[in-house]
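for the recovery benchmark. tokens below, seq after
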């Protein structure tokens, strides 16, 4: 694959394996950078490659520890800007704070907009992200945003399983459009779970609209955080006579007791991507599969670098 040496890809410390896989796909070396911490806890970054006049991409998921990885991304962007890179793209496979996108009560921040402002101020000329939780977050940035969908990767995997008697279940009302696309692509029926949120980590699944008895069920979402929604929905569809249950999500956050809950629920397979590193999860849950988004990111980076259409990637779904 021919790419000129004006393209440089660097990795923060949040997901170096993914950045390395992206570079393998593009057949270019990963850019050299030294990330150090001073004795007082401050971080500093020194880019070891010449980036003057070059097209630079920084791969950094703002996953746990969110604030540390976010600040590291900002420092990286500022470093490249001051080193006279011609264009800087923040590649954020998982964008932390995405769910803080509105004021749903008094005296609370809209942190997603704050983070977007900081990324722009730090020096990013554009952003490449995967599943921002809400599409309107693209408008929070005053720079171009290329928004990829994890369903490009997930749907192809589930299609390869050739699941018969399939019903795609939306675990909540907000995910109905996504579930409809999966049902159309995989040739399954559609159902929806009506839920009631009791607290930040507790969700009660109350009713199912659609038929799941004797059916294999697939539930897909953008994020599994506490797993309250998917576990509640999985328990309900099992009570209603579902056979196998598959869960798919782009971002496996797995906060608090999520993995313990997933292990106790009658779920046959949980599928996530590597937007967030998942090296240690197999110790807690065995029926999990991690798919790579490296090829999708690599193709998007190649197209951005060549000023080609990124939206054409979605023609395959």
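predicted aa per position
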């Amino acid at each position: 694959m021919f790419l000129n040496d004006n393209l440089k890809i660097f990795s923060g410390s949040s997901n170096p394996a993914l950045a390395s896989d992206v570079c393998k796909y593009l057949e270019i070396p990963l850019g050299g950078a030294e990330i150090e911490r001073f004795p007082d806890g401050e971080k500093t970054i020194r880019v070891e490659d010449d980036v003057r006049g070059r097209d630079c991409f920084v791969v950094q998921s703002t996953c746990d520890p969110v604030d540390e990885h976010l600040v590291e991304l900002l420092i990286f962007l500022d470093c490249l800007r001051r080193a006279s890179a011609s264009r800087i793209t923040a590649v954020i496979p998982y964008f932390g704070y995405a769910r803080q996108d509105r004021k749903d009560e008094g005296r609370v921040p809209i942190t997603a907009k704050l983070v977007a402002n900081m990324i722009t101020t730090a020096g990013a000329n554009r952003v490449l992200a995967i599943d921002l939780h809400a599409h309107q977050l693209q408008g929070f940035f005053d720079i171009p945003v290329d928004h990829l969908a994890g369903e490009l990767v997930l749907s192809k995997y589930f299609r390869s399983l050739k699941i018969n008697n399939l019903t795609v279940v939306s675990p909540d009302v907000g995910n109905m459009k996504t579930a409809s696309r999966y049902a159309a692509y995989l040739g399954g029926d559609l159902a929806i779970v009506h839920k009631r949120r009791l607290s930040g980590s507790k969700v009660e699944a109350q009713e199912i609209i659609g038929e799941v008895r004797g059916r294999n069920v697939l539930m897909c979402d953008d994020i599994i955080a506490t797993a309250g929604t998917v576990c509640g929905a999985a328990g309900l569809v099992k009570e209603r006579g579902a056979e196998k249950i598959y869960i798919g999500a782009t971002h496996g956050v797995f906060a608090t007791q999520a993995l313990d809950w997933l292990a106790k629920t009658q779920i046959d397979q949980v599928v996530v991507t590597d937007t967030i590193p998942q090296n240690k999860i197999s110790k807690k849950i065995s029926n999990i599969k991690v798919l790579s988004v490296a090829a999708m990111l690599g193709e998007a980076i190649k197209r951005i670098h060549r000023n080609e259409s990124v939206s054409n990637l979605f023609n395959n779904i």
